[in-house]
Amino acid sequence: MSSTQKKTLLQVENLSIGFSQYVKGTQKRVIWPINDMHVDIAEGEIVAVVGASGSGKSLLAHALLGILPGNAICLGSIMYRGEELTDKRKGQLRGREISFIPQSVNYLDPLMRVGKQVQIGLNKKSAKAQQERLFAQHGLNNSDGRLFPHELSGGMLRRVLFATSVREGVKLVIADEPTPGIHPEALAEILKQLKQFADDGAGVMLITHDIMSALEIADRVAVIKDGTTVEISEAEAFEGNGERLKTEYTQRLWRALPQHDFDTEVTGKAVVAPCL
Ligand SMILES: Nc1ncnc2c1ncn2[C@@H]1O[C@H](COP(=O)(O)OP(=O)(O)OP(=O)(O)O)[C@@H](O)[C@H]1O
Ligand code: NI
Questions:
Q1: What is the pTM of this model?
Q2: Where are the domains positioned within the chain?
Q3: Is the CB of 69 under 6 A from ligand 1?
Q4: Ligand 2 geometric centre to CA of 66 (Å)
Q5: 103 lines ligand 1 (CB under 6 A)
């Protein structure tokens, strides 16, 4: 599906994020890990955001959710459903219309049973039943709900995190690396669920290192490098030798994936890969 056919849900333009830091004790300076980044998502569209570690993917997610640290400076324009996404609005929509699947399981409360955590934000009356349904859908046992985060495996915790994102009325899903530490079957299930969000009309931002998995469901791919957007291309452009990709950086990234080893042999040229 192309974004031109659908209504724009989210439009990020000229996003820069800086942190003021003290140097030499008292002198302050600002570093800018995100510089002039842009990305947009239409209703019902899945946009994968890929980029090397430290390129600024999580900061982008946190800026959209309004959960950047207090010393962060955020510039640029974030439009959501045609209106500026102010800090106040971010707070109102977070965990409701805008759903977040965080990168780290540390986002879970270590002192609260995981079942209870999944019930947060659900209608009080039906919360317990709905949580149990979500657990079943995510391959978790009913009895797991009584456990605390430290009593679950990494893979199980990721599934709990995922269950916290499924809320009625979700219009934008931001998933930050939802798949590491997950076995292939669960990976397929997560991709299927993200696809389901999109089929139900939500926009999905899928932040990941795993381009091949992302391409199974993504409509477009935004490539991030050093805090800026290098390229946004239709998922279909990621095929063959990557001739349809716009930048050399993305072409190198694509050709360096393990699946494309044979290309190096055919051309006899060594591919210098930007690492993901
Ligand atoms: N609170 C902070 N203060 C200063 N710099 C920060 C802060 N948070 C993040 N950064 C810097 O911003 C850059 C981008 O970080 P970010 O976590 O967004 O990367 P990422 O693309 O999500 O990486 P990964 O794939 O490893 O999760 C990094 O260089 C990081 O050091
Ligand atoms: Ni990250």
A1: 0.88
A2: 1-22+29-97+170-183+201-243, 106-168
A3: yes
A4: 16
A5: yes
